[in-house]
Write a structure and sequence with these properties.
heterodimer; A: about 140 residues; alpha/beta; three-stranded parallel beta sheet; 1 helix; flat; B: about 180 residues; five-stranded mixed beta sheet; 13 strands
Chain lengths: ~140, ~180
């Protein structure tokens, strides 16, 4: 997945778009490429959300709604994916067979996450560097 | 990851497994079971030589965290001093205050109180240079949140783990604050 925003706008000032993400048995938010994708997640924004926090309308107070694992997990670099891609092409050239890039076990996204942002196979962008938004300093 | 609050999760607040340009800016982190920010999922990653080659997809290039030297001043306004030892460049240093220090000794960051840029100077060795900083947040309730931490962020959007925390020293001489 790429160029996705979870929450409130570029500067955190779109309050209506904020989310309360809590009480998941796994992580709150996991952003990663799909297991077999060659271009992993990049340029995503998680803005001004409450993660691990709920809201009690009776007392008008935020309450503990911690998720079962990390609040946010980010994984899946494009450069690793591109490296695998080059390896794959070379193997094809040599007549070998490679079914696809696999993530290491410790890079597997938590499938129990409350919000799981994945890139579906039909959205893959092969043979191309992902475009990157201009970097800004805070 | 920008602004917002990440509290009370059983694991880390923000876990960057791998990949770079994962900026964490102005996020309040508190009461998480693991670190507030954990690069590579390895617990506190000790500062090393940032100029040496890293694994190609190492989390936020393993950017060193700042070292805080002192935090002292008046009741609600004081100076936070420290330095960052890393590759040449300009870095944004974020300052956080909390009511407690994480059991790891690093982080978390209950309130974000802004920060300032720090630029590396000529003092350095082995490819790394020192970027000293002194930051005076506008207003902090140091009485209730006396534990200060910091993160560094480079121009490419790589954010470090939290620094170790230090306790603010209120060196006000007079009770009415005239110091």
């Amino acid at each position: 997945v790429h160029d996705v925003t979870i929450g409130g706008g570029n500067f955190g000032d779109d309050y209506d778009r904020r989310n309360l993400i809590g009480s998941a048995t796994g992580g709150g938010v996991v952003v990663d490429g799909a297991t077999d994708t060659l271009v992993a997640g990049h340029d995503n924004h998680i803005v001004n959300n409450f993660i691990g926090v709920g809201y009690n309308g009776n007392t008008n107070a935020f309450v503990d709604r911690g998720n079962g694992a990390a609040g946010i997990t980010l994984a899946g670099p494009e450069r690793r994916a591109l490296q695998l891609h080059r390896v794959q092409r070379r193997l094809r050239h040599l007549g070998d067979e490679q079914s696809g890039a696999r993530q290491r076990a410790d890079q597997q996204p938590d499938r129990r996450a409350a919000v799981l942002v994945r890139q579906w196979p039909g959205q893959r962008r092969r043979h191309r560097l992902p475009e990157r938004a201009p970097t800004t300093t805070p | 990851v920008t602004y917002g609050s990440i509290y009370y999760n059983a694991g880390t607040g923000i876990r960057v497994v791998n990949g770079q340009h994962n900026a964490v800016h102005g996020v309040a982190l508190l009461g998480n079971g693991g670190l507030g920010i954990d690069l590579a999922g390895a617990g506190v990653t000790a500062n090393d030589n940032d100029s040496l080659p890293q694994p190609v997809d190492y989390a936020n290039r393993g950017l060193n965290f700042p070292l805080l030297d002192s935090a002292k001043g008046g009741h609600n306004s004081g100076k936070i001093s420290g330095s960052l030892l890393t590759t040449p460049g300009t870095y944004w240093i974020s300052i956080y205050a909390s009511n407690a220090c994480d059991p790891s000794g690093h982080g978390e960051g209950m309130y974000y109180f802004g920060g300032a840029f720090a630029t590396t100077g000529n003092l350095g060795a082995n490819g790394q240079f020192l970027a000293p900083f002194t930051i005076q947040p506008a207003f902090v309730d140091y009485a209730s949140t006396p534990f200060i931490t910091a993160t560094a962020e480079d121009a490419d959007g790589n954010t470090s783990e939290f620094s170790s925390c230090i306790q603010y020293v209120d060196d006000t001489v007079f009770a009415n604050g005239f110091d």
